[in-house]
Every structure is written in structure tokens, then in C-alpha cells.
Known about the structure:
This protein is of the alpha+beta class. The chain has helices at about 5-10, 20-25, 35-50, 55-60, 80-90, 105-120, 125-140, 215-225, 265-275, 290-300, 315-325, 375-380, 390-395, and strands at about 95-100, 145, 155-160, 165-170, 170-180, 230-235, 240-255, 280-290, 305-310, 330-335, 345-360, 365-370, 385-390, 400-410.
Amino acid sequence: xTILDTARKILNxxxxxxxxxxxxxxxxxxxxxxxxxxxxxKLVLAMEAGAQKDETLQEKLAKSAGKCWVCNNLFxxxxxxxxxxxxxxxxxxxxxxxxxxxxxxxxxENEEIVWAESxxxxxxxxxxxxxxxxxxxxxxxxxxxxxxxKPQIVALLDLENDNVGLEVNSLYxxxxxxxxxxxxxxxxxxxxxxxxKGCERCGNTGKMYQESVDELIKxxxxxxxxxxxxxxHGAGREDIDALMLxxxxxxxxxxxxxxxxxxxxxxxxxxINNKAEGxxxxxxxxxxxxxxxxxxxxxxxxxxxxxxxxxxTTEEKLKSSLDIISGTLIxxxxxxxxxxxxxxLERVRKVHSTELESFDTNTAVLVIxxxxxxxxxxxVSGDNGRTVPSVAALLGCGAKVIELEVIKVG
Length: 410
């Protein structure tokens, strides 16, 4: 069957606009819009009908009034949809965008009918053309560019309800944080008793802890980006009672549905640090793409810890036990203290090096350089044999961590 034969079959179904006729052959040529294809096909068919004196076809081609049975004259309203899109986008800052369409059931059914009846294999979907044509008009009117792969904002044409909805993609900011006081978790921690609803145990706050690194950053980003909420993504986490020192721990904070994207990160950084009152400090803020979150979560960074331990041994024995542990693979079952929230698994992690920084009668300070994921508290205590080897087991006496600092990540 020739292209003209297919076009005739489509015309036999009823009045059809140039866009919808041309769209059935969208994959056959470049440099033409669908309405140009449709006009060209109708012109050739009109000339052929005149030559063959096909009055029926001539009559069908001569009809111009009425509704296109495929799109109900949707393509006569492209400028209106472009204006609706621009109005919906007007409260948001963006450099690029994408137009999408939610078609009605009727339009979807009409499109399936024309494909089935004509047998065309060269068509593109109605919504593809609508997205492109409205997008071109928005580009021209706003000076912004359409981005098919990673748009900052998606305008969704809802044909059923005659409005434009928005899907605003998040803004991502990378940095490092230093936690300078103990007793603050990395992220929001809902109360175990009430699940965040508020109860007597949590003072009706819904929180196990009233502050977190996440929450000390959150209000500043919400103000700067005018976003609905934030999400905090850290490269691992330290214990609540541990400090995070040195160059800090890498993190990405995500601003959800931001109205503003051009943020002065130096001002944001200063605002967070000044308001935190010495509890945390953020460093080196910069914009990143969403893929950085996954990279952060999957990174296998080495950690360096400073541990103050309690013991009942001699300096010589402690040094000897540290020498044994240095360079050793440590087998650890999930610590007893976190079994309520983590699976009971055996992990094998390496201790790269150890150092006895200071020694007193009942306390000592150790520096442990190890593979990420090693539970250093249990490396000292042994956790009743769940960590092997351990400092306590090698000493043959009790030993436990009483203060912990993370001094390097990565």
C-alpha cells in the first residue's frame, strides 16, 4: 500500500486536520512539521482526484469546517496551551523545562482507531506532537530551552481538566559537615514510641532528639530556595554521641520543589554556621546533579577515628594488642546495640593502622584508621564475642569506648 493509499483510508474515516493527517507519516521525513505534511498530502490527493474526476474524494478534501474527528481541533489551541504553561511556570525560577501531556480517554481511543484502520507504521503519538509544538512556543516566549533528558521542571498539560500541572525536579547541594557537639543525630529521628505523632515520652514533639544535622540545615535552605521540604543524604553516619571533625563528612542536601534555583551558596553556608551556634559547621557547598546522591551512598570511604577508652591494663599490653589488630581483617556480627533496626549479618572489615595517642592509668586515646563500615566501639569492647579480634579479648580484660570522634572520612 502506498502512502497516498494510506492517506485515502484515513480521509475515509471523516474530517481530519492537517496535523493529525501529517502525524500518521511523521517518521518518513525530516524538516517538515506534521501540519505541513498533512497539507502536502491533501494537495497531492486533490490534484489526483481532479485528474481522475473522483468527486467523492474532492468533496472530502473540500470540507474545511467542523471538528477533526481525531483531536477535536486540539491543535487550534496551541497558543492558549503555551500561555497556560507560561502562567503555571511563572512562580518558578528555571533555565530549562519539558512539556508533557496527559491525554483524555477519548483522544487515546481515537488515535488507536486511526492507527488500526489505516495500518500506518510511520505515526508518532498525538501527545508527542503536542508536547513539541507547545514547547516550541514556550521557548520562543520565555527564552528558556526545552530539555528532553534532565529538565528542571516539567509542565504537564492535563487535557481532561483543561489545566497545567507541574513536576518540579529537586535542587541538589553538596558539602561537608562537621559535628562539634555530642548528642545530635545526622537526620530527623521520629519517636520510637509514637512514630512521630507525639506522645508523653517525646514531649509531644514526635522526635527522639530535638535537633539533628539535617534540621540545623533545613530551615535555611527552605528560605533560600523557597522549597516545600528537604532531604538529607550523608556518606554514612556517625553515632549520636560521636563528634565529626577534620574536614567533615560528605553530604548532599536536596531541596524539593524549589521555586528558586540561583542561590548564593556562600550566604547559605554563613547563615547555617552562624545560626548553628557551634553545634555544626558546613563547608564547601556546591551545586551537583542527582547522580551524586547515589555515588555518595555507594562510596566505600575509609574512616579515621579518635577513641577515648576505659581500660584496666598496662601501656605495653595495650600497644601489643593494637599491633596485632593493625592490618588485620575484623569479623563483626551486627552489634547488639543496633540489632533492633539492622539485620544480623557478619561483616568483614580491615583495620589499616592503629596508634596509641596517649595513655593514663584507667584511660587511653587511640587513633584507628579503618575500612568504612567497621563498628569501632565493638572493635574495642568485643561485644561479647560478636567482634573478633577485639582489643578487650586481646587484653584479656574489659575495655570500652567512652568518647568517640570521627576525624577523617575518605
